[in-house]
Amino acid sequence: MKKRTKNILKITSLSVVALIVLALGGIALAVNFIFTPEKLTPVVLKVSNQVLNAKLDMKSVELTFFSTFPRFGLKLTNGSLVSKALKDTLWQKTDSLVAFDKCVVVVNPLDYLYKNKITVNYLGLENASVYAYKSKEGVANWDIMQVDTSAVAAKDTVTAKPLTGGIDIRRVSLKHADVVFDDRDTRLYASLQNASLGLRAALHKERSRLSLKFKNDNIIFWQDGQLLLHRIAAELDTDLELERQTRKLVLHDAGIKVNGIHFDVKGTLQGDTVRRALAVDLTYGLHAPTLETVLSMIPESILKRESMTAKGEVMMRGTVKGWYGKKQVPAVTLDVRIKDASAKYDKLPYGIDHLSADFQAFVDLMRQKPSYADLKIFRFQGAHTDVLADAKVDDLLGDPVITFNTQSKIDLTSLAQTFPLQQGVTIQGAVEANLRLKTRLSSIKKRDLGRIRAAGKVTMNDMSLQDTAKGFEFTSDASLAFLGNDFLAARAQISKLVLRSRRLDANLSSLTATAKTTNPQDTARIAKMDCKVELNQLKGNMGDSLAVFCKKTTATISLEPGQRNPSMPRIGLSMEADTLFARAGDIRFGMDKAGFGVSAEKVRDSLWIPKGIIGFNRLKVNVPQFALPVRMRKTALTVGDRRITLKNASFRIGRSDLTASGVVYDLYGVMKHHKVLRAQLDVSSHNLDCNQLINALSFPADTVDTEEAAEEKVDTASAMKLFIVPKNIDFELQTNLKSVRYDKMVFENVRGEVNVRDQAVHLNALRMKGLDASMFATVVYRATEKKRGYAGFDFRLRRINIGKLVDFIPSLDTIVPMLRSFKGQVNFDAAAEARLDSNMNIKIPSLRAAVRIDGDSLVLMDGETFSEISKMLRFKNKKRNVFDSISVNVTVKDGNVTVYPFVVQIDRYKAAVGGTQGLDMNFNYHISILKSPLPFKMGVTITGNLDKMKFKLGKAKYKDAVTPVAIRQVDSTRVNLGRDIVNDFRNIVRRRE
Q: In which region does residue 141 sit, left (phi positive, over 0), alpha (psi from -120 to 50) or beta (all else)?
C-alpha cells in the first residue's frame, strides 16, 4: 500500500513538473519566437495611435513573463508621446508630453473578462521627462483621449457594459523623472528635477481611494516672469479619498517635507463643472510645533543636531484657499507666532533666554488683493545679545515697499557658545545696530539709491565669520551711519576687511566713504547722488580669471539721471590711483599714477554704455603669446561707444618704439567673451626691430621668468623661427616707419597699409628705401602652426645692386644662377608665393613665381673668363667686360624654371638667350648669335649643370623671336602669372562679407 502511494505521488509529481516545464516552454516559445518585438511593436503603435489623440513612437514593444512573473506584461523602450491636442502637425516643444527610456505595463485581462474590472498590477516609468503644457486658451496637451463619435451615435441601440468591479491600480512607479508644468493661462511655470512617484489606487463608482508617495531633488517655481521658489527639495506622503458624485477630493493626514521640514496638510479639492475650475481649501501647519523644530530649519551644514531643552508656545500654520482654473490661482496665507520661548543646548554654556516673534504673510498670485509680508515683532535675548526688530513688505508682487527697524546689540562670540555650530564654522566679534530703513525694491533694482530713506548707525567690531568646509571667511571692522533725512546721506568707514570664498578673494586695509543725495523732487528721474571714497591697499581676485591690486586711491562716484532716459541711472567715476595692477585671464598690466574719468549709462537690463578718459604716467602690459612686455608712457585713452580711442599713444617693446593714434574696439568683449580684438590705427616709429619682435612671438611669456631673461633669450636666438600670428586679432594699420630692421637689412621711410587678421599679416603696397634702392612691396605671411607657413609677395625694386638683391632674396641664386656672375644695378619685379619651413626658409618645390630683371652696363665679374672669350671672339675692346643691356623674364612653376628669350649685347656681338632649368640645377639653354663679325648666324645649346656643361653648335633657334611683338607676349605671360599669384595670396586675407 505504501509502495503504491509512493508511485502515485511520484507519477503525480513528475506529471506536474512536466506540465510546468511544458507550460514554461510554451511561454518561452511564445515570448521569444511568436510574439516577438518585431511583430508586437507595429501592432501596439497602430492601436495606440488610433485610440489616442497623440503620436506614440518607441523603439520596441516586448512581451514579458519571467521578469514580471507570474503575470504577462509589456516592456516599452525608448518611447515618446507627442500630443495632438494643440496641433495636429508641425509639432513644437509644447506638444511633447512624455519621453521615457523604459516603461513596463502589467495588467490582468482575466479580471476584465470575468469580474468586469480593470486591474493594473504594475505601471513603471524610468528616466522619463514630462512636459505638461496648458495654453492661454485653456487647452492642455495632456487631453489626449479620442472622442468616440461612433459610440455617441449608437448609444440608443447599444448599451456599454459598466465596470461594476471598478479599476484597481496596485502599483505605479515613476523613477528619475524631470517634470515641467507650464500653464500659460495662469502664467505659472514649475520644474521638478529628479522626481520619483509611488502610487496605489482603487477607483469605484461611488468612492475612490488613492495612496501617494512623492519626492524630488529640486523645485523651481515662476509666476508671471518672477522667480518665487528655487532649490526646494520636497516629499509628499498622503492618502486621498474621492467622492465621485460631488467631485470632492479629501486629503487625510497628508505629510509634506520641504527641505527636511515636516508639515501636516489636510483639506479638500472639489471640481466645479459649471465654472470649469477646482475649489481648493487646504490648511497646513508645522508638524510638532516646538522651538526645537524651528531651530531644525537651520541647515545641518551650519548647525549640529544635538539634544536640548525648550519651552514656550510655537505656532506655524497657513491656508491655500481659492479657485484654480482659467486665470485663477488660490491665495496662500502663513501665520507664525512664537511666544515666551526659551531653549538651551545641553552641552553649551549659553542659551536663549527669551524669543518672541509674530509674522504674517498673504500671497495672491492673481493680484486681486495686495500681497504682503509682515514681521510685527522679533525679540531675541540671551548670550549677551539683545535683538529687537520689525519689518514689513507691502505690495509684495508689485513694487515692494520695504520697511525695516532694529535696535540690536549682538555678541557673536557668545552666540557661538549658544548654538552647536558645525566643525569649521566660527563666528566672533560684536555688532551694534540702531537702524530705520524704508525703500522700494525698484529703487535698488534701478540703482536709484538716492531714494532710500535710512537713519541710524551700524557698527562692527572684530567681526569674523568662517566656514572652512565651504572655504568662506569674512572679517571686518566697520561702521555705517545714516543721517535720516528724506533722502540718502551716509558715511562708511572700514579699517579692515577680508573676504574669501571659492570664487572671490578680497582684502582691504582701509576705506572711508561719504555719500550725499540732492533732494529728489521728480519721481520720474533718478535721484542725483555723490559719493567720495578714499581707500588704501585693495587686493582682490575672482578665481584665475580676474585680479586687481590698488595701493592708494581717491575717487568720486556720482549717480544721476541718464541723458538718453532720465529714469535710467548714469554712474560716473573720477579716480586717482598711485599704483594699479590687474590681471584678466593671462593678460597682466600695471599702471603708475593712474587717473580715470569715466561714466556708464544704463540702456536696459545688464547693458551699460561707458565713456570717458583713462590716463596714466606709465603702463606695462604682458600678454602670454609675447615674450617682451609692452610699455606705454604718459598716455590718455578715450573710452566710449564700445571703443577706446588713442591719440599719440607712445609704446616701447624691447628696442622698438611706436606711436599710435586710432581706435580699439570692444576690449571688454575680448577679455570677457573672447571676441576678436579689432583696431584701426595710424602707427609711426623711429626704430622698429622686426628681428626682436618676431623672435618674441616665438618665445611665449611663460617660457621665461624675468624681463631681462626674456630680452636675453630673444636677442640670443640663433636664427629667426617661424612665428604664429595670434588668433582673434583684426588690425588695420597705416604705417610711417623711419627705420625698420629685418634680418641684416635696414629699410627706411616705410609707408603703407598693414592688415593683421585670420592669423595672417598683409603688407599692402608699402613704399620704402632699402638696399640703396627704391622699393614697393606687397607681402602676405600666414602661419597657424610652428612647423609650416605661407608667404606671398609682389616686389618692385628700382636700381638695386645685384649682390644686395641676392642677399635680400637668397633663393634667386638657385632660380637664376647666372646672376652671381654679374655686378651692377638692375630693376627687379617679382611676384611669388611659397610654403615656408620652421626656419622661415622657402620650400623650393612649392615655389611659384614670375620675375623680370632689367639692367644695363652690367659687368662680368670673372676677368680671366672674359679675357679668354675676348681673344677667342676677337673683341675690339678686350678690357671692357660690360654688357650693354639685359632684360630677363623668368617664371617658376611646378618645380621648373623657364627663362624666356632675352637679348644681350657685348662688344660687336648680339645674342638671344633662353631655356629651362630644373630645381636640381640641371639646365637646357640655347644661345642664338644674332649679330657678329661672322657672315652667318649660329646657335649654341648648353646642357648639364654648372659643374659639367655640354656645348652643341647648331642653327640659331631665335632668328626673329625677340621682336617687340615677342617681347610683349613674354611680358604678358609673366604679368598674367604674377597677377594670378597676387590674387591668390590676397584672397587669404580678404575680409568675409
A: alpha
How buried is 620 (Cβ within 10 angstroms: 0-12 exposed, 13-18 middle, 19+ buried)? Answer: middle
Contact 616, 637 (CB under 8 A): no
**DSSP class of 351:** -
H or E, element range at 980: helix 964-988
For residues 859, 860, 861 and 866, what is the CA-based torsion angle, rounded to 10 degrees? -130
Bond into 70 cis (ω within 30): yes
Instruction: Confirm if 428 and 422 have CB atoms less than 8 A apart.
Output: no
Instruction: Give the integer Cα–Cα distance in Å for 818 and 883.
Output: 13
HSE of 651 in the Cβ direction (CA atoms, 13 Å)? 18
Residue spans of alpha helices (H) in 661-717: 667-673, 690-698, 707-715
- Cβ 560 vs Cβ 584: under 8 Å: no
Confidence check: pLDDT of 60 > 80: yes
C-alpha–C-alpha distance, residues 787 and 153, integer Å: 82
| pLDDT value for 706 | 46
In sequence order, what are the residues at sequence separation of 6 or more whose Cβ sits closer than 8 angstroms to the Cβ of residue 857?
Answer: 824, 882, 883, 884, 885
Residues pairing with 747 in the sheet: 740, 770
- Vertex 264: Cα angle to 262 and 266 (nearest 5): 155
Q: Are 324 and 344 in contact (CB under 8 A)?
A: no
Nearest Cα neighbor of 800 from 838, 745, 753, 754 is 745
Rounded to whole angstroms, the Cα distance separating 760 from 782 reads 4
DSSP per-residue codes, 123-175 = EEEES-EEEEEE-TTS-BTT--BPP-HHHHHTTTT--PPP-TT-EEEEEEEEE
Residue with cell 576690449: 667
Which CB contacts under 8 angstroms, 24+ apart, belong to 932-935? 932/873, 932/908, 933/874, 933/908
708 closest CA partner among 632, 651, 630, 627: 627
Question: Strand, coil or helix: what is 866?
Answer: helix
Q: What is the mean pLDDT of the chain?
A: 81
Q: Which H or E run contains 677?
A: strand 677-685
Size of the chain in residues? 993
Whose CA is closest to 344, among 296, 387, 388, 311?
311
CB neighbours of residue 280 within 10 Å: 20
Q: What does each C-alpha distance from 255 to 45, 172, 266, 286, 400 come to in angstroms?
A: 40, 20, 9, 10, 33
Q: How far apart are CA 122 and CA 211, in angstroms?
A: 15
pLDDT surpassing 50 at residue 57 = yes
Q: How many CB atoms sit inside 10 A of residue 992's CB?
A: 5
Q: Label residue 993 by pLDDT band (50, 70, 90).
A: very low
Rounded Cα distance, 117 and 204, in Å:
10
Reported as a pLDDT band with limits 50, 70 and 90, residue 880 is low
Percentage of the chain exceeding pLDDT 90 = 16
Q: What is the DSSP letter of 95?
A: G
402-427 in b/e form (b: 16+ CB < 10 A) is bbbbbebebbbbbbbebbbbeeebbb
CB neighbourhood size of 316 (10 A) = 20
- Give the bridge partners for 266, in sequence order: 283
Residues 6+ apart with CB under 8 A from 549: 538, 539, 540, 579, 580, 581, 582
pLDDT of residue 120: 82
Q: How many other C-beta atoms lie within 10 A of the C-beta of residue 333?
A: 16
pTM summary value? 0.62
Q: Please tell me the distance from the alpha carbon of residue 221 to that of residue 188, in angstroms, as a whole number.
A: 8
Span between the terminal Cα atoms of the chain, in Å: 106
Neighbours of 778 (CB within 10 A): 20
- When pLDDT is averaged across residues 649-668 and rounded to a whole number, the result is 88
Secondary structure (3-state) at 117:
coil
